[in-house]
């Protein structure tokens, strides 16, 4: 089964929320076929809990991250991931320096979503790795991006309202990403 890794700095604010929201979105969409989702931080302290504001903002969006324990980004963690989604361009660059071979499968959340949305429709038989390959090819060919809007802002040290705004932003981008990865949700058959 494919694995998705979400990366931020400390693995206590953005990436735990994104991990929980993405896991929920994928499980709703793919049920038992949903890929595993994990997270890590470029400067994380192993075992640190998620910030209370992250826990509350995620809870308000229907996701429980109370048991989250931060982990440091390592080459081994990256090697296990079929897709690496970073919260900011700086994290993407850390991944590329740490494991250069991970570059083709590493994107910011917004970069990946936009790249996939610009591609032709998803085929039912395309898997995660195929779609990631399409996004990497688009990036390599110079597909337009918005380098001024790649990052999800770090809410560390900000009030709960900022965490709520970040959780809302993550939820919106993740919904778009899941649709871009797996196509629109099929319409229900009449009479069901």
Word description of this protein:
By secondary structure, the chain is an alpha/beta fold. The protein has a single domain (3-182), classed as Rossmann fold (3-Layer(aba) Sandwich). Helices cover 45% and strands 10% of the residues. It has 7 helices and 4 strands, in the order βαβααβαβααα. Strands 2-1-3-4 form a 4-stranded parallel β-sheet, sandwiched between helices. β3, α4 (89-98) and β4 (106-108) form a beta-alpha-beta unit.
At the fourth level of CATH, the homologous superfamily is Response regulator
The string of secondary-structure elements, in order, is EHEHHEHEHHH
Structure summary, number of beta strands:
4
Indicate the radius of gyration in whole angstroms.
16 Å
Largest sheet, if any?
4 strands, parallel
Number of domains: 1
Q: Within the CATH hierarchy, at the fold level, what is the topology? A: Rossmann fold
Strand order of the largest sheet: 2-1-3-4
Please name the CATH architecture: 3-Layer(aba) Sandwich
Helical fraction equals 40-55%
Q: Which structural class should the secondary elements be placed in?
A: alpha/beta
Instruction: Specify the CATH class.
Output: Alpha Beta
Assess the beta-strand content as a share of residues: 5-15%
What's the total helix number? 7
Low-confidence stretches: none
Q: Report how far the terminal alpha carbons are from each other.
A: 30 Å
Mean pLDDT: 91
- Tell me, what's the shape? globular
